[in-house]
From TrEMBL:
This is Vesicle-fusing ATPase. PROSITE patterns: AAA (PS00674). It catalyses: ATP + H2O = ADP + phosphate + H(+). Pfam families: AAA, AAA_lid_3. Keywords: ATP-binding, Chaperone, Cytoplasm, Hydrolase, Nucleotide-binding, Repeat. The lineage of its organism: Eukaryota, Metazoa, Chordata, Craniata, Vertebrata. It comes from Geospiza parvula. Belongs to the AAA ATPase family. AFG2 subfamily. GO terms for molecular function: ATP binding; ATP hydrolysis activity.
Length: 854
């Protein structure tokens, strides 16, 4: 072996290159100087230093290099106080003050040093040997890059770089700064070095050193160094403190290290704590013949204990039938492909999971990946889309090629509709090319003898937006709907969610929660459990939210009332777009109208509470109820009470709000409102002033007969080819003569209820309800008021009570009660506004149309 070449620090030297082997007969002891990291960056201007080596330089003055016995362009071992190590190339800088050293940002992260931290600098005197194999770990965001291309780029950028296990390496890949972590190094001498968990920089919460192209270019061109006020004379032994404090919140930038001058030892350590590697040990460098092995981030994360808990089939509730179908379709071809071959059945190439958001499609895919044990590649929607021509298709081909090599394997494409929309509606050519590439790749599955060993699993909540060519047999052979769970499925989901949660719910209370959570999907139920847990914590802490101890932690259990409180804040996700604040109006708030209340309960509440009775009688519950009558007779208030008392999801539609000036938009709005009602069923769909929406055909005067088309859409949605299940239509109007007769037939509107003016008993009940919240004096005669309010509607009776209260306040703003005199004056002001002709109109309408109050 040749002796370690030494270049005089004052003599010119060639730019640093790959280190040559160093002899073991080098001096056993070498100078070691302490160092302190400082701030105040200063740009480096040295055109002799190659660009690719600037991130691995240790910038020093000539006097500091002499003190540390460092040679120009030779490796130097840096050791932090915590024992973290990095090998850099020593390089002098003209005019650089003595006692300073400049390090790149990546080096600082490897050493985990900040301004003011102590370091030890030593020359590398051990043998420097070529690395045969190096295992590196990519970040998750770089996991989709081409491993072969990145390996070539890595070798080109880091040729000659001495590496240690656990080091973070930074290099530019197609204009982007990439970071990798060295996990294991194997030398040509057969020795192996493996990184310890604590030595991996990427394990901390520090930000990745990723910058824009302009910033990374600026970093390449200029290694920023800091200066500190220090004496010009070499005899000055003292070093001054930086005048400006370093902001810990500022972004990490390359800074400088302060080295004591020759003979300066006061206040600084002469030797630092040396880690597992000594400067006399063997070191390994990357060469063009080094093999780079890329480790998947998920594997490394699992080894470090950072992976999330494994999702298994047992953790999924409410999807028993779907899971059985999926296991038959997915597991058998992957685990026992010979069964399909022996019967001559082609195994499926793709399975499509579709359904509303939050029903568990992605969770099923994770469970399949964990249970089957196959190699899984995940594509999250449009993450492979690139702005460069042809790169998106290239990434897709690369993913399929890697999956084919690692079979049995599964390719899971989440949000498939974003990657493969319909080609006729594609916004650009990239989407069309990606769809065509995926079709070709799926047709090619099994052509290389891997039939049944590669399966594509897709998930979407918009199956109608997918390209039709994808959904034919031979590509996505099986389509499985992951729908909204029913009461039994919701109970199963709640039991799985609460398996490891301390709670005091009985089986009956859990069943009640499942029954009342209409339209909730799995994600909504998980959010409900979380919200109930927060209520339980608030209840346990009480008025001391800042106090917490182990005794409180062990005593917190979720109660049934916590879930009831949580349900007020957590609504079904499908209802968030159309959610309305349902007023807390109960049946007791509506005076009289007992027959109307009973008929509405028969149509809405009975089918939910007594479904077996309808099955026993062999009948279907009423689909629709129409309330009609004079204005102010509590038709809308009855709908509010029904929404509150039934506990069902309530969607309110105001007649004209669905109308749109654009052709087809009004019909689309009708379809959309019915789709949402089906999604959150059982539900009530309330049409107020339906006469504006369902006007009789032939009477519309608008251009294009928009009203006729809206009516036709409404009729088909209520009773068309697609059955309307678990959705009750409730409509209100005071002009039944304008509604088309086709809407009023049984099967669409089964119950037509006339809401008349209140009779004497109803008026008495209305007054009694108002008097409960009004300070009424003893001289008020309820019977007199009932007698004098004949032909008054419910709204007009409310107006009489309000007017009487205002008259009392008009006399005395501090009045304590309302007297009979005030009510008599109010009756003189508020008179009945519904003429006898309108009442006669409703009676004649019943006789002429054959519609009677049922």
């Amino acid at each position: 072996p040749r002796s370690h070449p030494r270049t005089c620090p004052s003599a010119p030297a060639a730019p640093p290159g790959p280190p040559s082997p160093a002899p073991s007969a080098a001096p056993a002891t070498a100078a070691a100087l302490g160092a302190v990291l400082a701030s105040a960056p200063e740009p480096l201007r040295d055109d002799k230093v190659p660009k690719m080596l600037r991130r691995a330089l240790a910038q020093l003055s000539l006097s500091s290099m002499k003190s540390a016995d460092l040679c120009i362009g030779r490796p130097a071992l840096l050791t932090s106080a915590e024992g973290r190590q990095e090998v850099c190339t020593a390089w002098p800088t003209a005019g650089f003050p003595g006692g300073k050293i400049g390090l790149a940002e990546t080096t600082q992260k490897n050493l985990k040093v900040n301004p003011g931290d102590a370091l030890t600098v030593q020359p590398v005197t051990g043998a420097v040997i070529q690395a045969e194999e190096v295992d590196v770990k990519l970040r998750d965001k770089d996991a989709t890059v081409n491993a072969e291309e990145m390996s070539v780029c890595l070798l080109r950028n880091l040729d000659g770089k001495i590496i240690l296990p656990g080091n973070l390496l930074a290099f530019t890949y197609y204009g982007r700064l990439c970071n990798i972590v060295v996990m294991k190094v194997k030398g040509t001498d057969g020795a192996e070095l493996i990184a310890q968990g604590s030595a991996i920089p990427g394990d901390s919460n520090e930000p990745d050193l990723e910058r824009s192209d302009l910033e990374s270019s600026a970093l390449d061109l200029s290694l920023q160094l800091g200066r500190m006020d220090i004496g010009d004379s070499p005899e000055v032994a003292s070093v001054s403190t930086p005048s400006k404090a370093v902001d810990p919140g500022s972004p990490v930038t390359p800074s400088d290290l302060e080295l004591p001058g020759e003979g300066s030892t006061e206040g600084l350590p002469l030797t630092g704590r040396i880690g597992a590697v000594s400067n006399t040990d063997c070191f390994y460098f990357i060469s063009s013949r080094t093999k780079i092995n890329f480790i998947e981030p998920r594997t490394s994360a699992a080894e470090d204990g950072e992976c999330q808990s494994r999702v298994t089939y047992d953790m999924i509730g409410g999807l028993g039938s779907q899971l059985r179908t999926i296991r038959e379709t997915v597991e058998l071809p992957l685990k026992q492909p010979e069964l399909f071959k022996s019967y001559g059945i082609p195994p499926p190439r793709g399975v499509l999971l579709y359904g509303p958001p939050g029903t568990g499609k992605t969770m099923i895919a994770k469970a399949i990946a964990n249970e089957v044990g196959a190699h899984v590649t995940v594509i999250n929607g449009p993450e492979i889309i690139s702005k460069f021509y042809g790169e998106s298709e290239s990434r897709l081909r690369q993913i399929f090629a890697e999956a084919s090599l690692c079979r049995p394997s599964i390719i899971f494409i989440d949000e498939l509709d974003a990657l493969c929309p319909k080609r006729e509606g594609a916004q650009n050519e990239v989407e069309k090319r990606v769809v065509a590439s995926l079709l070709t790749l799926m047709d090619g599955i099994g052509s290389e003898g891997s039939e049944g060993q590669l399966l594509v699993l897709g998930a979407t909540n918009r199956p109608h937006a997918l390209d039709a060519a994808l959904r034919r047999p031979g590509r996505f052979d099986k389509e499985i709907e992951i729908g909204i769970p029913n009461a039994h499925d919701r109970l199963d989901i709640l039991q799985k969610l609460l398996k490891k949660v301390p709670h005091s719910l009985t089986a009956e209370q859990l069943a009640h929660l499942a029954d009342s959570a209409h339209g909730y999907v799995g994600a909504d139920l998980a959010a409900l459990c979380k919200e109930a847990g927060l209520y339980a914590l608030r209840r346990a802490l009480g008025k001391r939210p800042g106090l917490w101890d182990t005794a409180v932690a062990g005593s917190v259990t979720i109660a049934f009332n916590d879930f009831l409180q949580g349900m007020k804040n957590v609504r079904p996700s499908a209802m968030r777009e159309v959610a309305i604040d349902v007023p807390k109006v109960s049946w007791s708030d509506i005076g009289g109208l007992e027959d109307v209340k009973l008929k509405l309960k028969q149509a809405v509440e009975w089918p939910l509470k007594h479904p077996e009775s309808f099955i026993r009688m062999g009948i279907q519950p009423p689909k629709g109820v129409l309330l009609y009558g004079p204005p102010g007779c509590s038709k809308t208030m009855i709908a509010k009470a029904l929404a509150h008392e039934s506990g069902l999801n309530f969607l309110a539609v105001k007649g004209p709000e669905l109308m749109n000036k654009y052709v087809g938009e009004s019909e689309r709005a009708v379809r959309e409102i019915f789709r949402k009602a089906r999604a959150v069923s059982p539900s009530i769909l309330f049409f107020d002033e339906i006469d504006a929406l369902a006007v009789e055909r032939g009477n519309s005067s608008g251009a294009g007969n928009v009203a006729d088309r809206v009516l036709a859409q409404l009729l088909t949605e209520m009773d068309g080819i697609e059955q309307l299940k678990d959705v009750t239509i409730l409509a209100a109007t005071n002009r039944p003569d304008m509604i088309d007769k086709a809407l009023l037939r049984p099967g669409r509107i089964d119950r037509i209820i006339y809401v008349p003016l209140p009779d004497a008993a109803t008026r008495r009940e209305i007054f009694r309800l108002h008097f409960q919240s009004m300070p009424v004096s003893d001289d008020v005669c309820l019977a007199e008021l009932v007698e004098r309010t004949q032909k008054y509607s419910g709204a007009e009776i409310t107006a009489v009570c309000r007017e009487a209260a205002l008259l009392a306040l008009q006399e005395d703003i501090h009045a304590k009660s309302i007297t009979g005199r005030h009510f008599r004056s109010a009756l003189a002001v508020v008179s009945p506004r519904i003429p006898d002709s309108l009442i006669q109109f409703y009676a004649d309408y019943q006789q002429q149309s054959g519609l009677h109050a049922l």
